[in-house]
Design a protein that fits this description.
The chain has 3 helices and 3 strands; from the N terminus they run βαααββ. It is α+β, with helices and mostly antiparallel strands. It has one domain: Ribosomal protein L22/L17 (Ribosomal Protein L22, Chain A, Alpha-Beta Complex). A 3-stranded antiparallel sheet has the order 1-3-2. Helix 2 runs antiparallel to helix 3. It is elongated and about 65 Å long.
């Protein structure tokens, strides 16, 4: 049994979110939430929220489950790029320079341990 959660249009750079996602890939949910809670990077907040949502989805799908949240692990986590907000900023000599504000989509799949 497994469940998925998806966070779309997160206003963080996908590269920065992937750095934090690599820390928790394949770990138990308790350990992953502990890592995310104490991680100083800004990308840990939307990742923690998405992992908690995936765990809640798991227990909503299988209400008769006798599993505890400690028995789950992160089976799959990946970060894709979303659209870019294009903005302009004043530059020297009357020019305008483009600013690209990146967004990302976070996919988290949790599953029960195979033990």
């Amino acid at each position: 049994m497994e469940a998925m959660a998806l966070a779309k249009w997160v206003r963080k750079s996908p590269r920065k979110v992937r750095q934090v996602a690599d820390l928790i890939r394949g770990k138990n949910v308790d350990e992953a939430l502990n890592i995310l809670h104490f991680c100083p990077k800004g990308a840990s907040d939307p990742l923690e929220k998405t992992v908690r949502s995936a765990v809640a989805n798991f227990f909503n799908v299988d209400e008769n489950s006798r599993l505890e949240p400690e028995d789950l692990y992160i089976k799959e986590i990946y970060v894709n790029q979303g659209f870019m907000l294009k903005r302009f900023r004043a530059a020297s000599m009357g020019r305008a320079s483009r600013i690209r504000k990146k967004t990302c989509h976070i996919h988290v799949t949790v599953s029960e341990n195979k033990e």
